User: What shape does this take?
Amino acid sequence: MRKNQYVAAIDQGTTSTRFMVFDRVGEIVGVAQKEHKQIYPYAGWVEHDPTEIWACTQEVIKAGLNESGVGIAEIAAIGVTNQRETTIVWDKRDGKHYHNAIVWQDTRTDKICNDLAKEGGQDWFRAKVGLPVATYFSGPKLKWILENVDGVRDAAESGWAIFGTVDTWVIWWLTGGPKGGVHVTDVTNASRTMLMNLDTLDWDDEILDIMDIPRQMLPQIRPSSDPNFYGATKVTGVLPTSIPVCGDLGDQQAALMGQTCFTAGEAKNTYGTGCFLLRNTGTKRVDSRSGLITTVACRMGKEPATYALEGSVAIAGALVQWLRDNLNLIGDSRDIETLANTVDDNGGIYFVPAFSGLFAPYWRSDARGIIVGLTRYTNKGHIARSVLEATAFQTREVVEAMQKDLDTPLEALKVDGGMVYNDLLMQFQADILGISIVRPQVVETSSLGAAYAAGYAVGFWENIDTLRQNWKVDKEWKPGMTEEKREELYRNWKRAVERTFNWVEL
Assistant: This one.
C-alpha cells in the first residue's frame, strides 16, 4: 500500500453530508453521501440535530473509504467544508448540544436584528465585518441561544459551553471530542458570524460586548489551509490518530477554491439549497454599495487573506424540493426539467421564493414568497418553469450589483452545484445574463476546494498553478435570447419582487 496518494474531504451541507476522496489531478476516486433531517418547529424556524450530523459524518467516512478502496494510510490529509452560519452550542465536557443547530435559513432572530438595526442601523457593523445586520448570520443566532436556552449563559461564563459553526463541531469531534478535540474555525467561517473583524481577522471585542457574547465561547480562528494542522484524527472505529486535519472553508469559499478562482475578478456561482455567487477581489477588501457582502475568500498558511464580494440567495434548489415535498408536483427533483419542458415559456407567471425573506441585494426580512401573473391558462408546467427561472433571475440581480461595486463586467460565469445538470436552467441563465455559463468536469467543487486546502497545507499539491491545471471544462452554454426579450422578462421579475415587500409586520 502506497502512502499519501490521496486527500479526503468532509462536506457537511444543509441537507446532507458527503465524504469524498480525490487523487492528485483532482478527480473523485470515492464518495459517500447521507441526508439528515430538516426540522421546522415553527414558521420561519429551521433546525438540524447536531448529533445526527456527526453520526452521518462517521457513516459516510466509513462508506466512502470502502467505496473508494483507498486505505487510511494512503490519505495525506483531510479538509472540512460546511454549511455556513449554522450555529451550535455544546458542552465541551461531554459533547452534548444545548439546543438543536439553528440553520442559516432560520429567521427567529428577527427581533434581535431589528432591535440592533434600530439602535445603530442595518449597517452598524459593516465597516468592521462587511455584513449587514441580518438573521442570516451566526452572531444573532448565538445571542438568541444565550438569551433563550436555560443554563447556557451560566455554562458559557463558566467556560463549559462553547460555540461553533458546523465546521467547528465536526473538527472538534474528528480530533477527539471530549477527549482533547480542538476548538477551531477558519477565517472564512468566522467572517460569516458578524463577530470577526475583517482587518484583524480576530473576534471584535466591541461587537461581542454589544451582542453580550462571552469571548471564551468562541473558537480559535485559523488559516483555511494550515501547515501547522488543527489536529489529527481520533475517531474510534472510523479513523486512527494519524491523519492531519488541516483544511477548513465555508462551502461557498471552498467552491471558489475548487473552481480555481484564485485571481481577482474571477467568479463562480453555486446552485444548491441556496444560490451563492462569489467574486475574488484579491487581498483588498471591497465594501459593497449595492447590497452585497464582503467576506474572506481564504487564507493559505501565513499568506495574506484574500477577500471576495458575495451575493447570497436564500432559496434556489430548496424551491425545487418544496415543489416536490410540499406540493407533490414532481416525484424527484430531476423531474422538474421534464415538467418545465412541457411548456414553451413561463406563461406570464413569476415565482419569488422569499420563504426566509430576501437576501442579496435587498436584505428584506419582511418579504415573503409570492406567485404573480396566474390565469386560467396557467398549468403545472408553467409553475415548474417559473421555479427554475427564479434562480436565474435572482442570480442576475446579484451579478448586476457586483458589476456596480467593481465597475467591471463579468465575461463568463463558472457554475457548480446540483442544479447545473439542468440544461433548461443553465441555458436560461446564459440568456438572462447575456454571458457564457461554464460547467467544470468536477462539479463537487466545495469538496474539491476543501481537499485542495488540506492537500496544499501538507505539500500534496506544491503550488496554485498545479491546482489550476486540474480544472477542465465539461460544458458551456452561450446566450441566444434577444436583448429586448431579456429585458422584458427581467423587468417583470423586478415588478414581482416589489410585491413581496412588507408582508410581515416587523
Q: What stands out?
A: Residues 380-406 form the longest helix (27 residues). The chain is about 35% helix and 20% strand. The chain has a mean pLDDT of 93. Residues 6 and 264 are 29 Å apart (CA to CA).
